[in-house]
Amino acid sequence: MTDETLSNLLREDRRFPPPAALAEQANVTAAAYDEAAADSEAFWAAQAARLDWAEPWTQVLDWSRAPFARWFTGGRLNVADNCVDRHVRAGLGDRVAFHWEGEPGDTRTLTYADLKDEVSRAANALLSLGVRAGDRVAIYMPMIPETVVAMLACARIGAPHTVVFGGFSAEALRGRIQDCDARVVVTADGGYRKGAASALKPAVDAALEECPDVRSVLVVRRTGQDVAWTEGRDVWWHDLVTAQPADHTPEAFDSEHPLYIMYTSGTTARPKGILHTTGGYLTQVAWSHFAVFDVKPETDVYWTAADIGWVTGHSYIVYGPLANGVTSVLYEGTPDTPHQGRWWEIVQKYRVTILYCAPTAIRTFMKWGDAIPAGYDLASLRLLGSVGEPINPEAWMWYRRAIGGDRTPVVDTWWQTETGAQMISPLPGVSTCKPGSALRPLPGVSAEVVDDAGEPVPNGSGGYLVLTRPWPAMLRTIWGDEQRYVDTYWSRFPGRYFAGDGAKKDEDGDIWLLGRVDDVMNVSGHRISTTEVESALVSHPIVAEAAVVGATDTTTGQGIVAFVILRGDAADKGAEEDPAQELRAHVAKEIGPIARPRQILVVAELPKTRSGKIMRRLLRDIAENRELGDVTTLTDSTVMDAIRERLPEGS
Ligand code: WTA
Fold it and tell me: N or C: which end of the chain has fewer CB within 10 A?
């Protein structure tokens, strides 16, 4: 973010107090801040008590082996029981859990009672495949009800799941299956995207060529497309799951039993397996969903328009909303299929009251124009949320006006895969919102903005965002790599969690998130590391060296720009042929289409410091078409001139 944008942000002086009607009925009031400040452990214990525990905990927080936290130690509970059976026991079995909308327009309604039967059958099916508590199950699925069912079935039998986003490649899937040693994979023939069936099973087949330990693949038939079949390993969901009894008695697991592993990009090429556990995670996702979205389970229709393959889907499509017994919308496809009003048609059809999505979607809708949402009845909406990347004030204002009818609060929620749950966000019945600011830490959460030396910055200044106290939904470790957990998050500022984000405190002390301060890019709300893309590029035979930067992009937040040096023979050929297309496709194949570079520039040399470090800052200047910053630490300052000469006309 440039200094100019920064000062624009801080000149933002529009204010939006909570609507009186919402404030009067709000689930959470300002008192929560005081209660949590007085005793945060007592505060979280009160929120944990909103769940059903088979065994009470003996200690709220055990931080004796910091930074390895244990929450609600000694307590036992079952996550699926809390998300499903508990509501059926309370007589709410007929309440809709999901209104599912397939991209081609087919629909399914699942009540909590339906969900209980389906999850029980799937749990029995997994048991019949030999899955036991503690075994890892990989889930590689489109956005269909079976995805939620599979996750809850795993939770029910204590088998941690790792959901791999369906847009990831076979290669990415292989790496994740191997890293957590999953023995069973749940997938589908394919799903619908952009008006066509998009296959998933071939990627599983390709990944499993190098995963000999996977013994079973459970396949949902969604699109009906042809699939290759490995006898003895592959089994259809409709054969195995449907035949199972709909009874299954859930066992209570320890509060610290692993619930899932979610892989996310860090600053190295190897994604990190973020481990979340049971009691603390469910407590905080359930409470934050209740507080930040002010959900009224009897009347609200809630929609997180994100993919279940990301943490947002885990916490705010699956675990949070279900723990609160809420009715949700689940949509399979893309926002412009079959037309650009698809989301608004869904809001109108199901009378959606709360919508949660990423700024990149909002900016795309802005580009498509006001007339599209204006053609639908969006009066049911009462609250809007944003997540995944900084939301610029204009996008915030547009969201509130064009979608929220100038009446709905917009909550900008900051959190991460690692935090598990929302951390910094307005409370809609309490906070006066400022367009572009996440405001302050939620009750029970402690954050600070610090300088290089770790000292809190004064109001009006910027620095690094840190979390100063453990929180219930925090990651417990990086799967299989405790040292990396300590090094990545707890060593930059000892005793505090380093989020990797820059932030600024305004004159009121409110927090404005400014984006990553490390080599992680944020493209359409997806975290992608520069090194991950670089190693994909250099794995192509024609590439000698690559440097990748995230350049500001008005729609996607950041766009991936790659600078590559070709190998000798390829470089000669490169004069006639443009290898960029080939390399873009290669990255998509290695990581997934979301990582495909927006632009690839073939260069003769890369700018390096005397110690051999690539100066990405200068490449970013080029990618963003700016005057070059300080070049004095370069070994050879003519390198930059040579790169500029190679730029295509007009860039
Ligand atoms: C960014 C997504 C600004 C941030 C839940 C963070 C945000 C990363 C916001 C985590 C926000 C998320 N404002 N930036 N409201 N929310 N981010 O792990 O850089 O996919 O570190 O989790 O997204 O991305 P992740």
Answer: C
* C-beta 387 within 6 A of ligand 1: yes
Please check the confidence at residue 502 and state whether its pLDDT lies above 50: yes
How high is the pLDDT of residue 5? 59
Q: Which residues contact 356 (CB under 8 A, 6 or more apart)?
A: 293, 302, 303, 304, 305, 306, 312, 316, 384, 385, 386, 387, 413
Query: Do 162 and 260 contact (CB within 8 A), yes or no?
Result: yes
233 in a known ligand binding site: no
3 pLDDT band (50/70/90 cuts)?
low
Place of tokens 């000149």: 11
Q: How far, in Å, CA of 79 to CA of 69, rounded?
A: 19
**How far does the centroid of ligand 1 lie from the alpha carbon of residue 623, in Å?**
23
Answer whether 583's CB lies under 8 Å from 600's CB: yes
Asked whether the predicted pLDDT for residue 309 surpasses 70, the reply is yes
pLDDT recorded at residue 635: 66
DSSP labels for 487-533? HHHHTTTTTSEEEEEEEEE-TTS-EEEEEESSSEEEETTEEEEHHHH
Ligand 1 atom closest to the CA of 264, numbered from 1: 18
For residue 525, report the distance from its CA to the centre of ligand 1, in Å.
Answer: 7
pLDDT at 6: 60
pLDDT at 651: 42
Structure tokens given for 288: 């934050």
> DSSP assignment, residue 271?
P
590, exposed or middle or buried, with CB in 10 Å at 0-12, 13-18, 19+?
Answer: buried
Q: For residue 482, give both structure tokens.
A: 């405790």
Of all protein residues, the one whose alpha carbon is nearest to atom 3 of ligand 1 is: 390
Is 254 known as a binding-site position? no
Q: Give the mean pLDDT of the chain.
A: 93
Which ligand 1 atom sits nearest the alpha carbon of residue 310?
20
170-180 vs 201-208: helix crossing angle, rounded to 10: 50
Has the ipTM of the complex gone over 0.90? yes
pTM, entire model: 0.91
Residue at 148: amino acid letter: V
557 lines ligand 1 (CB under 6 A): no
Query: From CA 328, how far away is CA 111, in angstroms rounded?
Result: 10
- Per residue in 594-624, pLDDT tens? 999 999 999 888 888 776 778 888 898 888 8
Quote the CA–CA distance of 319 and 262 in Å, as a whole number. 14
Separation between Cα atoms, residue 67 and residue 272, nearest integer Å:
17
| Cα 526 to ligand 1 centroid, rounded to whole Å | 9
With a 6 A CB cut-off, is 503 part of the ligand 1 pocket? Answer: no
SS3 for 592-637 is CHHHCCCEEEECCCCCEECCCCECHHHHHHHHCCCCCCCCCCECCC
Report which protein residue has its CA nearest ligand 1's atom 23.
388
Q: CA-to-CA distance for 255 and 499, rounded, in angstroms? A: 25
HEC string for 344-370: HHHHHHHCCCEEEECHHHHHHHHHHCC
Beta strands in 539-608 (DSSP E): 543-553, 557-566, 599-602
> Is-contact 301 329, C-beta < 8 A?
yes
Query: In this predicted model, what pLDDT tens digit does every residue of 72-109 receive, in sequence order?
Result: 999 999 999 999 999 999 999 999 999 999 999 999 99
- Angle of helix 170-180 relative to helix 580-590, nearest 10 degrees, comes to 30
Least trusted range by pLDDT, from 22-36, 238-252, 573-587: 573-587
* Helices assigned H by DSSP within 59-186: 79-80, 86-89, 112-128, 145-157, 170-180
Dig out the tokens for 278 from the structure. 């049971």
With the most atoms of ligand 1 within 8 angstroms of its CB, the residue from 307, 392, 513 to mutate is 513
